[in-house]
Specification:
The protein has helices at about 1-10, 10-30, 40-55, 65-75, 80-105, 110-120, 125-130, 135-150, 160-175, 185-205, 225-240, 260-270, 315-335, 335-355, 365-385, 390-405; strands at about 295-300, 305-310. The protein is mainly alpha-helical.
């Protein structure tokens, strides 16, 4: 096993190709189950139809990118379950590959990159969202790849750095154009850029003010701090507003340049309105503990009782919390920056929902946090293994795969024995 990993160490693109094919196959098998609209697809599939027909505004509370991608799937594969969900499967595969690329760039370890990617594929949040025509899988893919490209931009020639930095800014703009939940991550990206610049100045024993004007920097060479922040803000904002282009051609209530800013105010009002209580609502603190999963579907379909339950992989969701603590410990004890970064990613992803003015919360809001737990697990195993290749992470991945296979029937809408067939997976009273 170790010899094979060493051989693959110099061929990350081949590994990524094979990993992407495996992930795409996993997400695509039986994509037509269920054969009907499920859960919040009731909002986004009709909104995609409205976009394709340019009939007028629909599902105004969210921007257009996710619905544009759902519509692209309908155009390519038809108005059917496969068409509705085709591009979400691609976003799921992109998320798995994003985890691989992020860890490869951060750690330079094939073992850690594979561990993080496989855990991402079987963490169950990515699996279910990749097979459901909703927005969160696109949000995760765009944000994760923005992080990847920002890491990639840290080294290279000044021209390469600038191009990659612009590319990361575009991806952040597309993420915001999918859901406004991405807005805090644009701010976090700018803060991370600034903190790294200040840290570089401190390590070089230069005045902190030297972090701002110069382009001769160890990270993102050729890109001065203030221009970098301006590019990040301007490009991401321009990309976001460009995603509204189709709305200018609506038959009913077409968007105008004068109406672009008022539309943002309307979206804010809709997103912050006080909503009626919902059966599946939950508070942010319950999400890491996996207290309230959500049935996306539980009906008779295609001749059998079938269900799709959004529930995290217990091995990853609960083991990942230990990994976050281990990463924080690595920083406290050794000032290890990589572990601290992924731990803060998870903490920030949860803290966002403590702050934003949402009247209701749902477990699927934890989607990004679930991805970051996979990164934290891979980083923690890599850090504490210290190159000794003890193989503990392989046992952990095996346990996560076993848990995924155990829950698979109620993740993939497989036939159940009867209407009460779901009960054997319900470990706690709060699980529906």
């Amino acid at each position: 096993m170790l010899d094979r990993l060493k051989a693959l160490q110099t061929r990350p693109y081949l590994v990524a190709l094979l990993l992407g094919l495996a992930a795409q196959l996993l997400f695509t098998i039986h994509l037509d189950r269920p054969s009907r609209i499920m859960f919040d697809e009731v909002h986004y599939v009709p909104a995609a139809h409205a976009l394709l027909d340019l009939e007028g505004p629909r599902n105004v509370e969210h921007p257009l990118v996710g619905k544009e991608l759902i519509g692209a799937g309908i155009v390519l594969f038809g108005d059917n379950p496969f068409g509705w969900r085709a591009f979400t499967t691609l976003a799921g595969t992109a998320t798995v590959l994003g985890a691989f690329a992020f860890l490869w760039l951060l750690l330079g370890s094939m073992r850690a990159a594979l561990v993080g990617a496989v855990l991402t594929a079987v963490n169950q949040s990515v699996y279910v969202q990749a097979r459901t025509s909703m927005l969160d899988i696109f949000l995760g893919a765009f944000l994760l790849w923005a992080m990847v490209v920002m890491l990639w931009a840290m080294k290279g020639s000044p021209v390469q750095v600038r191009r990659r930095w612009i590319g990361a800014s575009v991806l952040l703009g597309l993420a915001v154009g999918t859901k406004w939940a991405a807005i805090p991550y644009v701010a976090l990206a700018g803060c991370a850029f600034l903190v790294i610049r200040l840290r570089d100045a401190r390590r070089a024993k230069r005045p902190l003010r030297s972090a701002f004007p110069g382009t001769d920097q160890p990270h993102w060479p050729g890109l001065a701090t203030i221009p970098g922040l301006l590019i990040l803000g301007a490009v991401s904002m321009a990309t976001y507003f460009a995603t509204f282009f189709p709305a200018f051609f609506y038959e009913r209530d077409p968007l105008t340049l004068a109406g672009l800013i008022p539309l943002q105010k309307e979206m804010y009002a809709l997103q912050t309105q006080v909503l009626a209580k919902h059966t599946y609502q939950s508070d942010w603190w319950t999400w890491p503990l996996m207290i309230r999963p959500i049935w996306y579907f539980y009906e008779w379909d295609q001749g059998a009782q079938r269900g799709v339950l959004l529930i995290g992989n217990p091995v990853i969701m609960w083991g990942g919390l230990v990994a976050v603590l281990a990463c924080l410990w690595a920083w406290l004890r050794e000032r290890a920056i990589g572990p601290l970064a992924v731990a803060l990613l998870w903490i920030a992803s949860l803290a966002i929902y403590v702050v934003i003015p949402k009247s209701l919360g749902f477990y699927y809001y934890y989607h990004l946090s679930a991805i970051f737990l996979c990164l934290a697990l891979a980083v923690a195993f890599h850090h504490f293994d210290r190159g000794r290749n003890k193989g503990r992470e392989e046992w952990f991945v095996a346990a996560a795969i076993v848990a995924f296979l155990y829950f698979y029937p109620i993740l993939a809408a497989s036939p159940l024995v009867d209407a009460q067939g779901f009960r054997k997976w319900m470990w706690f009273p709060t699980w529906p």
